[in-house]
Amino acid sequence: MKRSAGDKASQIVIIVLLSLLCVTVIYPFLYMLAISLNQGNDAAKGGVYLWPRAFTFYNFRIVLGNEVIQHSYWITIARTILGTVLGLLVTLLAAFGLSYRALPMRGTILGYVLLTMLFSGGLIPFYIQLHDLHLLNSFWVYIVPSAFSAWNMFVMMKFIQGIPEALIESAEMDGAHPFRVLWSIILPLSKPMLAALGLFTGVMHWNDWFAGAFFVSNQKLIPVQTFLQQLLSAQDISAVLGSNNNVEALARGTSLANVTLMSIKMATVMVSAIPILCVYPFLQRYFVKGVLIGSVKG
């Protein structure tokens, strides 16, 4: 089919706009990567935009060799894995149970869940609740409060309700109990949606700095994003390098004059951003399928 001149012009405009959008998204990342791979004192002179002028891994050596960052990295990895798995488990079980229309008081329960999604008690009541539950200044403050998401539950429930009822009814007629139905029918068919919700939940846990900044005072329990938030507001590089002994161990013959606070900040940003970016390609197929299914059935 031959396209008109107007269609060709519209396609060119769309391509140009999308290209500009891609540049605005990719360029800041490339700029930070170039600064993190460049000697700090050289980058401070300016002129480093897309490619490091004085290439070095020393900024990453300092960042990855810092004990506080090492602890925060393990905290972030642990909370992301455990929080995502527990969140998907709770979401799947709640959505599966509430998908039964014959469930007693189902409408009341759904109304209560919807109410919690629309209205919040505020930060201070939430803080008091965490205090009463003895979750403050503990690792579990990252896991327990975020184990259930009303939005994810409603999305998952709508997906389960879209599964043909004949499959579930035939399994029940063959004597399958609810957990058997969940394991043999619901779970295999829900992999695309679970992958999409899992990616959203994992990114939320990985990028969250708020909980570590307001609910945790022990520096050994803060996630890497909270450390990054503290670093971005720091005025002295000693806040990153720590004691003099630590500085000497990290230097090992390399002049610390080549290091600046900006280069350390950019290296920390890269260390905190690259791992979660590497996960997406492995989940892309399920993620796109899950989002499309959710948009059609929602």
UniProtKB/TrEMBL annotation:
One Gene Ontology cellular component: plasma membrane
InterPro entries reported in the protein's UniProt record: MetI-like, MetI-like_sf
UniProt main location, coarse: membrane
Pfam families per the UniProt record, alphabetical: BPD_transp_1
Record's keyword annotation contains Transmembrane: yes
UniProt entry tagged with the keyword Zinc: no
Domain ABC transmembrane type-1: start-end pairs: 69-271
Membrane topology: Multi-pass membrane protein
Single GO biological process annotation from the record: transmembrane transport
Transmembrane segments: 12-34, 73-97, 109-128, 140-160, 181-206, 262-283
Keyword annotations: Cell membrane, Membrane, Transmembrane, Transmembrane helix, Transport
Cellular localization per UniProt: Cell membrane
Family stated for the protein in its record: Belongs to the binding-protein-dependent transport system permease family.
Designated name of the protein: Carbohydrate ABC transporter permease
